[in-house]
Specification:
The chain is an alpha/beta fold. It folds into two domains: 275 residues, Spore Coat Polysaccharide Biosynthesis Protein SpsA, Chain A, CATH 3.90.550.10; 295 residues, Spore Coat Polysaccharide Biosynthesis Protein SpsA, Chain A (Alpha-Beta Complex). Helices cover 39% and strands 15% of the residues. It has 25 helices and 25 strands. The chain has a nine-stranded mixed sheet. Strands 5-4-3-6-9-8-10 form a seven-stranded mixed sheet. α1 runs antiparallel to α2, α4 packs parallel to α5 and α10 packs across α11. The chain is elongated and about 95 Å long. The termini are far apart. The relative contact order is 0.07.
Length: 756
């Protein structure tokens, strides 16, 4: 009963307020329109009101009064609607049911009231307003350029996806590097109800390149200034985020704040939480002009349609030109210019509660933004030190960040029930292919793996490559999992040319790899190694998918198809480039074979020449590869002939032949049906043969397989009868497919299989 009485009293008070508002409004408008006997300007260019040109006439006064009156009347109508909804919802609230829409957090007009009411934003449902519809699309804009930013933005996206209950539309202003990486990532991530559009950041450079900028973000740190021009003209509002943001709540709550904007408010910003703009951090510190402490632009709410009408482009350009005459450059990129504009036009800003941008920079006052974990909404790592920043609660913030950093992104592929997703051709085709498989088939899991879409992050680390002038360059291609990571340094020491690696890792393992690589002087000194992360999913090791990913992203005309367990001989890179010219690979269909050997010793004095290798072969220190367990795999190389050969020689294909070869980059891909152990290379060599590649053995090249523990997949092959049966079935199906595709030319493979 007490709750009901309180509800009635609130309703009565609200009803009385509706009767009083019109009269009070007229008094307020009449008195508020004059200050010291002079009219107050309501122009968007309020800062220029001192000019006679902008003196308001009586006609202008009446127009401004009419505008204000219309705004108040609109607020009254909204309040009436709210009261009518409250009447209908009152019983539901008493039962404890929750609305399906999300409410806004209350913002304040000044920082003192803000600090006094921090927790008020997390108040009970009584003060909530349903302003974000269940399936309303939330638009998010992010500027992202380069390899590191492309990696950092994934953690931001994960934190948003984890909490979200609305469709999302990401607008990514990206350079060519970031677009290649993120387009592949989102395409293979296949998250429902998420759309991604890219805008070429390189084309926008001319818009801001005239502004000198000392900030570490470089020219890309200025591009938020031109979003009104860059984003679609029909996009009315957008949330703009830095890449070093982590969300701790549903982004719909932030989107709801747009409904609090009034009058000419077009920018939603949180006050800067350091003393930077107060100019007292060090002697002779001279920051750009700002209103009080200024505002941080790591999180921005932009009303794009109103900004365009206000001629935002002209506004910020004129301000920047004027201030640069004295400041010479920006220190905090776009943030300096935003603050200079706001200093002149404070009415543009709706000040967000500071928990929407808890800034973990040096000398921050962010601790005043929260009293409890539940108060946190958005964490901003805006110090160059990032996770190493000094803060009383930095361990908590760091753990929250690391949670999303290592979180399995595959778990974020969940549907938004009740919200229709846009038709995705790739997704529909995938579902159709999977539906055609027989789930009762004992080899169903093998067949299903062929259609699994693995989330892929290309160029996980910085990559640089300068093409060779003679067009003979060769990339070493390989794939690996976490248990072969120790081979990377050794391969980099043996092969100085470009390398393309596909790594099969979980999200947590990817971060372990990152720390390992960043701690290695050998790996950090090499910028011509492309590391492509293929995230784990399913029970099989997708060996041929990994090879295809590594092959697809090479920058050279030729590639050396190797495995991670092999160390190439010293100088092999230069030898292969010379062989490319000698054998005229550019104009012929040849596959150059690098003979493979192995050692059973973990510590090996690596042979520096062919003569030294032959000596070790004779002493039993080395063997031809798989001599003890699978002779047929490399027997056609003809090692006896290789011992004395001084010129390249041709060999013929034989059943189960699987040499390591150098080919042109346009060679056939590996067949994805073969996963784990068995027939993955054999099938590829068979396809090269049917396409009439010549197999040429190089007389002075070699590679050595280093010992390691048996892989999980080879253990399954040896111990699981059903595994071997399914592999045999897949082999037969592959040969039948070859016959259909190549006709009479493929018959010899069926004959060879029957005779072997």
């Amino acid at each position: 009963m007490l709750g009901i009485c309180r509800g009635r009293r609130k309703f009565l008070a609200a009803s009385l307020s509706l009767l009083c508002i019109p009269a009070v409004t007229w008094i307020y408008l009449f008195s508020g329109s004059f200050e010291d006997g002079k009219p107050v300007s309501l122009s968007p260019l309020e800062s220029q009101a001192h000019s006679p040109r902008y003196t308001a006439s009586s006609q202008r006064e009446r127009e401004n009064l009419e505008v204000r009156m219309r705004e108040v009347e609109e607020e009254n109508r909204a309040l009436r609607r709210q009261l009518s909804l409250a009447q209908g919802r009152a019983p539901a609230h008493r039962r404890g049911n929750h609305s399906k829409t999300y409410s806004m957090e209350e913002g304040t007009g000044d920082s003192e009231n803000l600090r006094a009411g921090i927790v008020a934003g997390n108040s009970s449902e009584c003060g909530q307003q349903p302003v974000v519809e269940k399936c309303e699309t939330i638009h998010v804009a992010i500027v992202c350029a380069g390899y590191n930013a492309s990696r950092d933005v994934v953690t931001l996206v994960k934190s948003v996806l984890f909490h979200r209950r609305n469709p999302l539309h990401f607008h990514l202003i990206a350079d060519s590097i970031a677009e290649q990486i993120l387009a592949t990532l989102f395409q293979t991530w296949m998250v429902p109800a998420v759309r991604v559009d890219f805008y070429n950041a390189d084309e926008l450079k001319s818009e801001v390149s005239w502004i000198p900028n000392k900030h570490y973000s470089g020219i890309y740190g200025l591009m938020k200034l031109v979003l009104t021009k860059t984003l679609p003209a029909n996009l009315e509002r957008v949330i703009v985020l830095d890449t070093d943001i982590t969300f701790a709540t549903d982004i719909a709550e932030l989107w709801a704040v747009f409904h609090k904007f009034k009058g000419q408010q077009v920018l939603g910003l949180v006050e800067n939480q350091s003393d930077w703009y107060l100019g007292n951090l060090w002697k002779n510190h001279r920051p750009w002009p700002a209103l009080g402490r200024g505002y941080n632009t790591g999180v921005i709410l932009l009303l794009l349609d109103k900004l365009r009408k206000m001629k935002w482009e002209q506004m910020w350009r004129l301000t920047a030109e004027r201030e640069l005459m004295g400041m010479l450059s920006t220190s905090l990129a776009d943030q300096d210019i935003f603050n200079a504009v706001i200093k002149q036009n404070p009415f543009l800003v709706y000040q967000l509660p500071c928990f929407w941008n808890v800034q973990l920079s040096d000398h921050t006052r962010s601790e005043q933004c929260y009293r409890d974990v539940s108060d946190l909404k958005v964490i901003h790592w805006n110090s160059p030190k990032k996770l190493r920043v000094k803060n009383k609660h930095v361990e908590f913030f760091r753990n929250l960040y690391l949670t999303f950093l290592e979180y399995d992104g595959n778990l974020l592929r969940r549907e938004l029930f009740g919200c229709p997703s846009e038709a995705d051709v790739n997704s529909e085709n995938l579902q159709k292919q999977l539906s055609e498989l027989d789930e009762d088939d004992l080899c169903y899991e093998f067949r299903r793996e062929r259609f699994t879409v693995h989330r892929t992050h290309l160029y996980f680390l910085h990559y640089e490559y300068e093409p060779a002038a003679d067009s003979t360059d060769v990339t070493l291609v390989a794939q690996l999992s976490m248990d072969r990571l120790q081979m990377l340094e050794a391969i980099c020491k043996h092969w100085e040319g470009p390398i393309s690696l596909a790594l099969y890792l979980s999200d947590a393992e990817a971060q372990q790899f990152l720390r390992y690589a960043q701690g290695s002087e050998v790996l950090m000194s090499r910028h011509n190694v492309g590391y492509h992360i293929v995230y784990k999913e399913g029970q099989f090791y997708p060996v041929n998918l990994l090879r295809n990913v590594a092959m697809k992203h090479i920058s050279t005309p030729y590639m050396f198809l190797s495995d991670i367990d092999f160390l190439p001989m010293y100088g092999l890179y230069e030898y292969l480039r010379k062989s490319v010219i000698q054998l005229d690979l550019a104009n012929t269909k040849k596959a150059m074979i690098v003979p493979a050997f192995e050692t059973l010793r973990y510590r090996l004095s690596f042979p520096k020449s062919k003569a030294e290798l032959l000596s070790m072969l004779d002493m039993g220190t080395l063997f031809t590869f798989r001599y003890h367990v699978w002779t047929k795999g490399h027997a056609p190389t003809n090692f006896a002939k290789w011992r004395t050969a001084t010129t390249p020689y041709r060999v013929e294909w034989e059943a189960d032949f699987e040499p390591y070869v150098v080919v042109k980059r346009d060679c056939p891909e590996y067949d994805r049906r073969f996963v784990g152990f068995g027939w993955n290379k054999v099938a590829h060599i068979m396809e090269l043969d049917v396409q009439e590649y010549e197999f040429i053995v190089l007389p002075n090249a070699y590679m050595i397989h280093m010992p390691h523990a048996p892989s999980f997949d080879i253990t399954k092959f040896r111990s699981n009868k059903q595994y071997r049966i399914c592999l045999k079935t897949l082999k037969e199906e592959f040969q039948q497919d070859m016959s259909r595709r190549y006709g009479f030319a493929a018959l010899k493979y069926l004959t060879a299989e029957n005779n072997s």
